[in-house]
Amino acid sequence: MNKTLFGTDGIRGPYGSALINESFAFNLGKAAATWLLTYNSSKQIRVVLGRDTRKSGICLVQALADGFKAKGVEVEDLGVVPTPLIARIVRDENLMLGIMVTASHNPASDNGFKCLGFGGRKLTDEQEKDLAHILAVLLSDSENKYVSNLVSSANYTLNLTRFTDAYFEALKSVVAGHLKGWIICVDTANGATWQTTPLILRDLGAKVIGLGDNPDGTNINFECGSEYPQQLQQAVVKAHAQLGIAHDGDGDRCILFDELGHSLDGDEILAILGMHLLSENKLSKKTLIATVHSNLGLDLAIKQAGGKVIRTPVGDRHVAEAMQREGSALGGESSGHIISPALGPTGDGAAAALHVIAVMKKTGKKLSELRMVMNKLPQAYIALPVKVKKPLSELKRLEQCIKALEVRLGDEGLVLVRFSGTEDKLRLMVQAKDPLQAEAGLKALVAAANEDLA
Questions:
Q1: What is the pLDDT of residues 215-225, one digit of tens each?
Q2: How many other C-beta atoms lie within 10 A of the C-beta of residue 400?
Q3: What residue ranges of the chain are covered by domains with CATH 3.30.310.50?
Q4: What is the CATH number of domain 3-144?
Q5: Residue 161 — very low, low, confident or very high, per pLDDT cuts 50/70/90?
Q6: What is the DSSP string of 390-440?
Q7: Per-residue confidence at 152, pLDDT binned at 50, 70, 90?
Q8: Dist CA 205 CA 82 (whole Å)
Q9: What is the pTM of this model?
Q10: Which residues are identified as catalytic?
């Protein structure tokens, strides 16, 4: 077992598989405890655990906790909470580790583990390799099998603590004043934010129309949330709302809808926030961090305003690392992971939405007006199912096609080819000033990929 155990954003897979089960969770807890003890064996170590609303999360958290306790590590189970809250606690409590049991935007049949290390940040490649090595040794020992005897009714109600109070106050402070008279539609994907985001907005005085806010353990992300926002789009227009907010299952990202029902992805959110910070001379080093997947229109908009965009590999972990290295105050992904270090070390969907609301209030502009700061380049995209993830360097026909496209597009286009970190898929994307050019480029990539993978 090696680095490939961890995908783009943690460990993830179908619940009940060889990877995601109680025995694996128990050994992950033991492995993580062993790993932590190698750094600090002289004092009591404490970790925090959280989960989204998947029914399988209840037993997985219990098994994970039992693994830690078997090694003498103190565990605090926070129940159903968003991932950014776990990250914030790890940072503010000066802890070495927190683990969120979630499969993010995946269906309820999946689950997984997001590990948040010192400072509340995602683990580095080296840390993941070290942890995976210890885990492999434990899993190879038949004596480390674990059988869950947990008998518990599902409970998805938020456990209000000093941690949630501090989190709420920090997020509410983003918006100057109140939101009385505002109507905001919120789709929480029947997930971890089903209480937190609506509570924050209602505390600020907004009228909240909730969707995807009745979790039952099996309906997380089911035809709702950021992956299926059609109902939210309709609700915003029908309610004459100022905006709509859609989260994923664990709440570390969001997409928005303006009052006209047009969607805004992470790139457009980054453009709005980045341009506003630049206008107030508050974007440190005038630098914004995005990934290779972001639309080239973001770079053009920020450049025109006097700033620059630095790109990283896909994954908010890479964004956070680059932000720390560059001293940047803003970064994120087109998927809606937006990171603001002042509020937390990882993507936070609620914080991102509140930052946009703050810009709306300060400028007096509607969201449909703010979104005009960025013109997206036409984009063609496909995710091809694959049986084997061969190294891209072995896909010679595809490699040649990529180089030819990059030469043809120059600075006025973008080509992205990568294997998914969470699914058996090859992701192909072409951006160009002309939509027909983007479609033609994608068609060429697909043909080359199919030839190499035949």
A1: 999 999 999 99
A2: 11
A3: 379-453
A4: 3.40.120.10
A5: confident
A6: --GGG-HHHHHHHHHHHHHHGGGEEEEEEE-SSSSEEEEEEEESSHHHHHH
A7: low
A8: 22
A9: 0.91
A10: 104
- What is the tens place of the pLDDT at every residue in 368-417? 999 999 999 999 999 999 988 889 999 999 999 999 999 999 888 999 99
pLDDT of residue 1: 43
CATH 3.40.50.620 matches 162-263: no
Cα–Cα distance between 231 and 184 in angstroms, integer? 14
* pLDDT at residue 343 in the model: 79
Which helix (H) or strand (E) is 231 found in, with range? helix 230-239
Domain ranges in the chain with CATH number 3.40.120.10: 3-144, 162-263, 265-349
CATH topology of domain 265-349: Alpha-D-Glucose-1,6-Bisphosphate; Chain A, domain 3 (3.40.120)
212, 213, 205: which is closest to 183 by C-alpha?
205
Left if phi > 0, otherwise alpha if psi is -120 to 50, otherwise beta: which for 119? left
How many Å apart are CA 215 and CA 226, to the nearest integer?
A: 16
Residues in the chain, how many?
454
